[in-house]
């Protein structure tokens, strides 16, 4: 199948009736894989802890199977803090349409799992009606669960110990779990936080800081915001221009905030892995893809060999199934 070439694309959004989103139509590409109309719509779902390569795999598969991507990360739905929330950049999207990514106003409240279920299910129907493959990708497993289960009760937390997790799904799903060994992922996530800070995350958080706003909803819960809100409360953003002139106390406070981000990122990653394993043990047929060697080598060639090739085989079989 012909692959797409990655170039810049202005952000656009598929129409929906939700009053919370301002939407514009976009052009689409016909799907290159033939699929009969099944009783249930076919959906590819990419899961994994933060930093394992879910966004990369979603784009790789979308370019090969003429797919459109629905973001299922509850922090990335907001149009702020692109670095802190690790939103995939426009060039990296390779012209693949992305939905529910950077669409909600930064000052909006939490998007509930029920609201995500409604928005994402409408998008799945619209994408499938155009003959394209819906690909759900993101680390918020509570969103994924809410979207996919046949019977959803918003009053219960399916991941609380002892609760029942249904394997009855309302879509025909192909689950791909991008996994990385614990030791390698822990080291990589720590290094990635340093790279994010070097790429402008500190400046992004400084611009977002508002001493008169103490809300703890929506994007304000993103890792990095509470950690640096405490720092900026002592050292206001306007006083942080020249790091070379910082006194030892300020440098120590900065390093403490960065370390907190690293620790909280690791806590998030472990929770994401635990929830995926819980879904898997409850009857969800989740294919595990080992991306450890790719993360260690930081190599596109290793990624294609160890993760992408197997993913393509799995998705091909899935699409050919009646």
From TrEMBL:
One GO term describing the cellular component: mitochondrion
GO molecular function, one term: tRNA dimethylallyltransferase activity
Name of the protein in question: adenylate dimethylallyltransferase (ADP/ATP-dependent)
InterPro entries cross-referenced by the UniProt entry: Dimethylallyltransferase, P-loop_NTPase
Alphabetized UniProt keyword annotations: ATP-binding, Cytokinin biosynthesis, Nucleotide-binding, Transferase
GO biological process, one term: tRNA modification
Annotated catalysed reactions: dimethylallyl diphosphate + ATP = N(6)-(dimethylallyl)adenosine 5'-triphosphate + diphosphate; dimethylallyl diphosphate + ADP = N(6)-(dimethylallyl)adenosine 5'-diphosphate + diphosphate
Pfam family, one: IPPT
The enzyme's E.C. designation: 2.5.1.112
Family from the record: Belongs to the IPP transferase family.
Superkingdom of origin: Eukaryota
